[in-house]
Specification:
- It is a single chain.
- It is built from 16 helices and 20 strands.
- It has helices spanning about 5-15, 20-25, 30-40, 60-70, 90-100, 115-125, 150-160, 165-180, 200-210, 290-295, 300-305, 425-435, 435-445, 455-460, 465-475, 480-494, and strands at about 45-55, 75-85, 105-110, 135-140, 180-190, 210-220, 235-240, 250-255, 260-265, 310, 325, 330-335, 340, 345, 355-360, 370, 375-380, 390-395, 405, 410-415.
- Helix 5 (about 90-100) links the parallel strand 2 (about 75-85) and strand 3.
- The termini are far apart.
- The relative contact order is 0.09.
- Residues about 20 and about 225-230 have low confidence and may be disordered.
Length: about 500
């Protein structure tokens, strides 16, 4: 039977406009997910100070308090600070918390204020600011919304050493800062923080101050917040403030029913690799190491191979006046992801919404590459595609008599100091990157469909000679199927 809180959540999810949800970046936590999150905290005793920032209607607080009232915690008393900026939700939040307030051992403080500014002021000791006493526990479903680089939030967060690009990571970083040593934080957040350069300062901030104790991954991208049609891949994380880092429990379930819940313990070295300066957070889903991890042949960096990977430098909306629908005497090819498919490269494509060419002149020259063989990887894949990493080869012979090429910003380009590669090397790279083993390994640290140049830069590769041999093999085949590619990879690593 659904609780009253869950009934209210479902009603509000249906009645609240999508635009309103997007403006606040807030999606209310389903009851079963809230109960699972509350169950991740270790049993506690004494006095509990609980933080629920972005409390919504109080689903997470209710789950935590239900566990306490049913004997799951041995707290003598609980004091809750619940922050909610949406004034329309405050009456629902008050109603949720009322039923726990009849024994004299529970205090609920509801703040209809901006959590970021209140927390920053408290942590920085601003004059006349509200002082927030340290918390023993924090449970969060923070808002999901980007923070502009020059916004008030960014300037406020920088005052206390937090550099981040999204409200959800700001909330978690502030919770870590506000929780006392030995305290625990449980949060459900998008998995995007696990990799990429934009979230590196956030990863560094939390890993320096807290130990990762538990990671839970929903294997279905669309079902954690299915009532709100949220398509981000979400993860639940439990952190211990000031804890000594040890093994990490990783659990998975298809969705928020948790019917097929499974969990395993992993050494921290498999979560954050010791030699990774970016501190990517990997989420292994089986005890066995991936074929890429196990192979002694795959441990070379791009630098070690004399190669580089860069994001395509042509940002089309910034050079509109230089673009042309079809090639002309003063243009060179401009390549988009749509020019590449399993059947190879097709250029130009008539009737395409995107331009096929860019004028070659003094303005555009700095963004162009000399014509040659290149390996490219699409920066974005659709959620329906089986692989995240999708590589292709640029064959210069299809372009005719041109000297330069343009690569649009949605492509990653493998090159040698902004020049093309030997054909065998370009084709070998593409074969390697298109293996199932590489894709499986990539998914352990990337929860979204974006593939950044930084991700590709930090991967490990076979030797240059091995890649060239892969390319020579590929050139002798008719068409390459996934089974053929994977079988060749297995032979390479066995």
């Amino acid at each position: 039977m659904l609780s009253e809180v869950e009934k209210r959540r479902l009603q509000l999810s249906k009645s609240t406009e999508a635009k309103r949800k997007s403006q606040l970046g807030q999606f209310l936590t389903p009851e079963r997910t809230a109960a699972f999150m509350a169950g991740l905290f270790p049993s506690g005793t004494g006095y509990c100070r609980l933080l629920d920032a972005g409390a919504g209607i109080g689903s997470l607080s209710a789950a935590f308090l239900d566990r306490w009232r049913s004997g799951g915690f041995n707290f003598q008393s609980v004091e809750l600070d619940a922050f909610e900026i949406d004034h329309s939700l405050i009456p629902h939040l008050s109603l949720t918390l009322e039923k726990y307030n009849h024994r004299g051992d529970f205090i609920a403080n509801i703040y209809a204020e901006d959590f970021i500014h209140v927390a920053v002021d408290s942590l920085s000791g601003s004059l006349f600011s509200k002082f927030l006493e340290s918390y023993t526990h924090a449970i969060l479903n923070p808002p999901y919304k980007k923070i502009n680089s020059n916004s008030e939030y960014r300037h406020a967060l920088r005052r206390i050493g937090i550099e981040t690009v999204n409200l959800y990571s700001a909330f978690v970083a502030l919770a870590v800062a506000l929780v006392a040593a030995g305290g625990h934080i449980v949060a459900i957040i998008p998995r995007s923080f696990c990799n990429g350069p934009y979230y590196h300062p956030f990863r560094e901030f939390i890993l320096k101050r807290a130990a990762v104790r538990h990671l839970h991954l929903f294997e279905s991208r669309s079902k954690a917040f299915k009532d709100d049609e949220v398509l981000q891949e979400n993860i639940i994380i439990r952190l211990e403030r000031g804890g000594q880092q040890g093994p990490v429990i990783v659990s998975t379930s298809t969705d928020d029913t948790f019917i097929d819940l499974s969990s395993h313990e992993y050494p921290f070295e498999r979560i954050v690799f010791p030699d990774d300066p970016e501190q990517f957070i990997h989420v292994p889903t089986s005890l066995e190491k991936t074929a890429v991890e196990l192979s002694s042949e795959i441990h070379y960096t791009l630098d070690g191979l004399g190669l580089r990977v860069s994001t395509g430098p042509v940002v089309d909306f910034r050079v509109k006046e230089q673009l042309r629908a079809l090639p002309g005497p003063d243009t060179v090819p401009l390549l988009y992801p749509c020019h590449f498919s399993d059947n190879g490269t097709k250029w130009p494509i008539e009737g395409m919404k995107k331009p096929n060419a860019i004028i070659y002149n003094a303005i555009t020259e700095k963004w162009l590459y000399p014509v040659g063989f290149y390996c490219i990887v699409r920066r974005f894949s659709s959620k329906e595609e089986q692989r995240r990493v999708i590589a292709s080869v640029v064959d210069p012979r299809i372009f005719g008599e041109v000297n330069m090429l343009g690569f649009e910003n949605h492509l990653n380009v493998f090159h040698e100091n902004k020049h093309g590669l030997p054909e065998e090397l370009a084709r070998g790279l593409a074969v390697f990157l298109n293996t199932t083993a590489v894709d499986v390994n990539f998914r352990r640290f990337s929860g979204h469909t974006q593939v950044n140049a930084t991700d590709l830069k930090l991967m490990k590769y076979p030797t240059r000679d091995a890649l060239i041999k892969l390319g020579e093999w590929a050139m002798q085949q008719g068409s390459l199927t996934q089974n053929l590619i994977d079988a060749k990879f297995e032979a390479l690593t066995s």
